[in-house]
Amino acid sequence: MDLRIEISEAPQEVDYQAILAPLREYNQAQTGLFGTEKLAILIKDDVGATQGGLYAKISGQWLFVELLVVPEAARGQGLGVKLMNMAETLARKKGCQGIWLDTFSFQAPDFYLRLGFSIFGELKDYPVVGYKRFFMQKRFDLNRDNPSNTQP
Q: Transmembrane ranges (predicted)?
């Protein structure tokens, strides 16, 4: 079989799946873990429209918070803390070791630190010079007795 390398500036979904499939197969063979479970905790308005919330995925024994948004008019009322506490409760019930997420320096790193998260990685000058992207985790084994524990 002859192989060549080419750059595609408009890759198709079929290309993505062709790359993902063997990687997923290899990872499953190594870990014995299969699939990802999605979950959402939604903030709805009085007509039932989603106005914000938390979107997460459980892969392996970790819950990844992909999105967290509290509507601007509702900020400062504890909804973010409530969403994160609910996510943690769900993660613990599903046997997760912890939660991880990423956030930008202009978003909410201090919020997550107050909730017991620690920074395990940092990308400087992202998305542009002067900002940072933080990768954060909250391990339940370190936070079992003290939810405000911030040790890495």
A: none
CA 131 to chain CA centroid, Å, is 19
- State the residue for tokens 């956030």: 103
**pTM for this model (two decimals):** 0.84
Q: What is the pLDDT of residues 51-109, one digit of tens each?
A: 999 999 999 999 999 999 999 999 999 999 999 999 999 999 999 999 999 999 999 99
Q: Between β-strands 98-104 and 62-69, what pairing exists: parallel, antiparallel or unpaired? A: parallel
Q: 45: closest CA among 71, 81, 68, 23? A: 71
Domains in the chain, ordered, with CATH? 35-143 (3.40.630.30)
Backbone angles phi, psi at 112, to 5 degrees: -70, -35
Please say whether the beta carbons of 71 and 114 come within 8 A: no
